[in-house]
Amino acid sequence: MNLKNQFIVKALQSTALILLLILNGFVLNFILKFELFKEKKEFIDEICKSKLENLDFGFDNRYFEIQKNKLKKNQLLPEILSLQGISNSISNAAIANISQIHNIKNLRAGNTYAFIHSNTCQTPDYFAYEIDQTKFVLCELKKDACAEVIERESYSKEEIATGTIETSLWDALEKNGVSLNIIDQMEDALSSSVDFHHVQKGNSFKLIFDRLYIGSTPTSSGNLIAAQFSTDNNESYAYSFIHNGKQDFYDNEGRPMRKSFLKAPVRFSRISSPFSSNRFHPVLRFSRPHLGTDYAAPTGTPIMAVGAGIVESASYTGGNGKFVKIRHDKMYQTQYLHMSRFAAGINPGAHVAQGQIIGYVGSTGLASGPHVCFRFWKNGVQVDHRKLSFPSPDPLPKEILPEFFKHRDLLKLKLDEAQHTAYISSTHPEAL
């Protein structure tokens, strides 16, 4: 090999070596950058995860000052903004923009609102108003005053609550973390088969329900799925089932739990005076017939129509106070006395559904304390409604029953296996 060729070979070898070194440099640089990217991503993910645990109205409370307050009765948005030193121009823009997405006349006393500061030495940067547990209004307190309704991330968990009554049903349910919303649904589902005004020590309950969670925080919202209530001599079951697009509760045989009439017009009250042919009147101070049943409850307690019908009267007399009378059919009428006020839309001729709120407990007329005197007519004669029995409605259609029984068996198994101690089980995938 001549000198020229040797030179060319050495030059090519050197070039190849240089290229290899450059390539190695690129590869090494890529690997380093990739590792740095991974570390950075892991760091960012950790920061984001940490932030999510500290978010309040979408802001990390470690870096923002979030001043929360409860809306007072008759307190208006312009007043709230002016107290924070917000200029008239920004305040007017904020009110106008918020009004486009939420009626500011519907701001409710007791709801939470907040001002968010990035610097507490300055006026707030944002205003937030909690519409309900699932959503809030957020408005930027700057020139344009942009506003939007933000939905909180939520999901449902299936939960089971069990308990045995020691003092009262209310205490037993409350101790087991059952919300008022679920309690109302339980009573509604079982009211035709369980006399909740005469529950006894040792009676027990089992409930399956879903509860709405906002993040990791449980709310009072949710729906009853199934219920069991046990007394000394009876077990009552109720299962939620959808038929023809309507959700209702059914017993073990697929018959609707809802009867023609509810057992009482108020929930979780007590009978202060039963139906009697001769009762000593606490106000008039002499004996006379008491052709109704008195349910004592706090002033303002909702009063429900025990059955569907048409309002015949919504009026006032000196003895009855404010009262509502309902015609259910040719045979039955009911009357509700001593109300503090009528519910909206309750006027003569109005159609009402079973369970619809028609008024609120009070002590108007001849009354010694807050209660509703409930009267029941059958063929024009006042009778003791607690001694009446009404026919059960027809069960689900035969072609639907196999589907219902399969649904019932799954729920009944859960109820029967539940122990009488409170526990929570979740069907949410994140919790498994």
Description:
This protein is an alpha+beta fold. The chain folds into three domains: 59-151, Nuclear Transport Factor 2, Chain: A; 155-259 and 394-431, Nuclear Transport Factor 2, Chain: A; 270-387, Glucose Permease (Domain IIA), CATH 2.70.70. It has six helices and 24 strands. It has helices spanning 3-52, 77-82, 88-101, 169-175, 180-190, 401-417, and strands spanning 55-56, 59-60, 65-70, 112-117, 126-130, 135-140, 147-151, 154-164, 204-214, 217-230, 235-243, 246-250, 270-273, 276-280, 287-290, 293-296, 302-304, 309-317, 321-327, 332-342, 351-352, 357-361, 371-378, 381-383. Strands 13, 16, 17, 18, 19, 20, 21, 22, 23 and 24 form a ten-stranded antiparallel β-sheet that branches. A hairpin with a 4-residue loop joins strand 5 (126-130) and strand 6. The protein is extended and about 120 Å long. It starts with a helix and ends in a 15-residue tail after the last helix. Residues 43-53 and 421-432 have low confidence and may be disordered.
